[in-house]
Amino acid sequence: MLQISITDLLSALERHNGMALETVAVDAPIAPDPLNSDDPKIREAAQALAAAACVSQVA
Question: What is the residue-wise DSSP string for 8-49?
Answer without folding.
Answer: HHHHHHHHHHT--HHHHHHHPPPPPPGGG-SSHHHHHHHHHH
